[in-house]
Design goal:
Helix content is 69%, strand content 8%. It is elongated. By secondary structure, it is mostly helical. This is BlaI/MecI/CopY family transcriptional regulator.
């Protein structure tokens, strides 16, 4: 399933929910008014859209995440690599490193990730 790519304002809204969940929908309206200058109707319109995209849920006037922030970011990254590099992480890294030199610290971090993955397999 493809993850929905949020607009910048939807992302700020999502960040607000992730930072405060579980949050009552009335409290969310207040936070959106304070942080974004949104009216109640705008908050509920955006919330409804993101609930339909199965990122959040609003049950009994309490908003919670269906996908936590790290899960959303992971799915978005996987989708990007799938769509742009045929799902090949090595092709992505090669393209990335062609234009950007990795520091020794970054190389070590990547080696550590690979080594820990190999140990688990």
């Amino acid at each position: 399933m493809d993850v929905y790519i949020m607009t910048e304002s939807e992302k700020r809204f999502a960040e607000l929910i992730w930072a405060n969940e579980p949050i009552g929908s009335g409290e969310l309206v207040k936070l959106c008014e304070q942080n974004f200058g949104w009216k109640k109707s705008t908050t509920y319109t955006v919330l409804k859209k993101l609930c339909e995209k199965q990122l959040f849920q609003n049950e009994s006037a309490t908003v919670t995440a269906v996908l936590k922030k790290d899960q959303y970011e992971q799915k978005k990254s996987e989708q990007f690599i799938e769509e742009n590099y045929s799902g090949s992480l090595p092709r992505f890294l090669t393209a990335f490193m062609t234009h950007k030199k990795l520091s020794k610290k970054q190389v070590k971090e990547l080696k550590d990730i690979i080594n820990s993955y190999e140990e688990e397999s």
